[in-house]
Amino acid sequence: MPDRTDPEQTDVAVPTTLMWEARAADGRSAELLAWLLEAVPRGQVFSSADRVVLVLDLDLAREFFGEAAAELPFRPSDVVPQPPPELVARPPHAWGFARVRSS
Prior knowledge:
By secondary structure, this protein is α+β, with helices and mostly antiparallel strands. It contains 3 helices and 4 strands; from the N terminus they run βαββααβ. The chain has a single domain (about 15-95), classed as Alpha-Beta Plaits. It has a 4-stranded antiparallel beta sheet. It is globular and about 35 Å long. Residues about 1-5 have low confidence and may be disordered.
């Protein structure tokens, strides 16, 4: 396993963290946030007036959702279920990132 604090050894092709973002349908931000907090009981959750963001370490995802959630390449739907369509203005976006440093 490469030392992700050393830029010479960082393999950015191996995601270790998922960032998931959804834009709420008009007037549904609080409901979308409540849905996410229940659907994914771990990770860091952020919100704004019309969006919710989840940042999740894939090791935590493995604990909750099984090995499929942390296999590479992973599919975001293996980690975060699709929200009810009436809560979102568009399909959620998701990206995998490789951790370089943890403070």
